Amino acid sequence: MCPTKITDGTHVPGLLHYAKKVAGENIRMQMLNVSSHYPAGILDEGPPSWCYETRYNGWNAPPDVYVSPYWKQFRAPAPYLHYLLGILYIGLMSVSCIGNGMVIYIFMVARSLRTPANMFVIGLALADLLMMAKTPVFIYNSFQLGPAFGNLGCIIYGVVGAYSGLGSAFCNAIISFDRYRVIVHPFSKGGMTMTKAICMLFLIYIYITPFALLPAFEIWSRYVPEGFLTSCAADFFMHDFNGRSYIVGTWFFGWFIPICIVLYCYFRIFLAVRNHEMQIKEQARKMNVDSIRSNAAVNGSSAEIRIAKTAFCVILMFLFSWVPYITVAFMAGFSQPQLRRITPVVSMIPAMTLKASACFDPFFYAISHPRYRMELQKRLPWLCIHEKPEAPTANGDDLSKTTEHA
What's the predicted TM-score (pTM) here? Predict the structure, then answer.
């Protein structure tokens, strides 16, 4: 018997074969936990297939957690990547807690270090510890391969991250301003007091509160899982005015202003130190001597130069911490969909650079300073720190002493 034909000339057995093929493809797509609404075209442009599972991103997300459609088009990262990130974060958390914990301990027990300038260093250490307070959530999510704490856990994670990240940025800015005030204008009438320092720290957190709390109530942007779905941040894939204005506002008021303060203050410090050295050399030339300063004064000047040099490391660290985050945010919020190359793996780089800054801060701002190391040697001798006592100054170089504390 000849097979029956339909109007377009296709044999029925051929049509049945095509229908079975389509049904099999639908079953395969269901097994991959992805619908046809999220095409897999971008997947071939990302990292190699061994970085991913056969399941798609968001396969184990709780029902109350909103996962951006952008992340759902990627296959879920392989479990070993989650585990590696979890182990890496355990190391970062340990280093940060030890370093910042020692800073707070020494500054609190050493009366000589309890100065208004050092209150800003303590504020920075507290901000870094706050940043690490959410790390156990990330570690637990990493070993659970997804957002195990639901939407509420994501919101709390985002709020803590905004307070600690922006708070750390402004603490860097206020430390640079205090050093600028002491070195460039050492004889200004308005001195820094403990009350002023504490009030300035409170004002910082009042200033950044809208950026931290408004997304929690979905008034201005919202907190959603990012990349691996184990950490949460503002939704950079909201392409309306609400989402994009949050990106621009956070960039300008939360990052651009602090980095401008840091750059301006340390540039003025560098100019002040250079001009001071030029004046000393000119005076020595007129007197026909090699140097007009005593050894103690030379040591004091070298301390100021050391702080000026450290400034450049601080700026580089600041840029290293924030530039990847800002770059990914603007790429997600403003680039065309076909031009985006933000894979789940790439999206985790900014999160790691910010966490790394919490490990670097205590070494740049405290452990590198001789007076802090002296106290550390006295109170924690098992660290085997061999710091020489400072030579007493004959002329009372207050400027150098203050910069040492700063």
Answer: 0.79
